[in-house]
Amino acid sequence: MKNSCLFYYSLQEMGSRHAKHGSPFTMMKNFGIRYCTAGENIAAGQRTPQEVVNAWMNSPGHRANILNKNFTHIGVGYAKGGS
């Protein structure tokens, strides 16, 4: 279920060139995923996973999400688009 949610969300993100994405919290609710606290890190334009992580760790907000001690689970979605 969670993987389906992430895959679906990744496809939605891929279709949006200007981060006009819906709320990840609404999507988790729609997929029946329960949570107490949640966050979101998205990326576009990097060529490798390492570039994505480097960009996140150099961003105070993204870094705070990654290091948040209240987050106990992670989900990762990936979609590769054309032009």
TrEMBL record:
Pfam families in the record, alphabetically? Answer: CAP (PF00188)
Q: Could you tell me which CDD domains the record lists for this protein?
A: CAP_bacterial
Q: Where is the SCP domain?
A: 21-82
- Which PANTHER family has this protein been placed in? SCP DOMAIN-CONTAINING PROTEIN
Protein's recorded name: SCP domain-containing protein
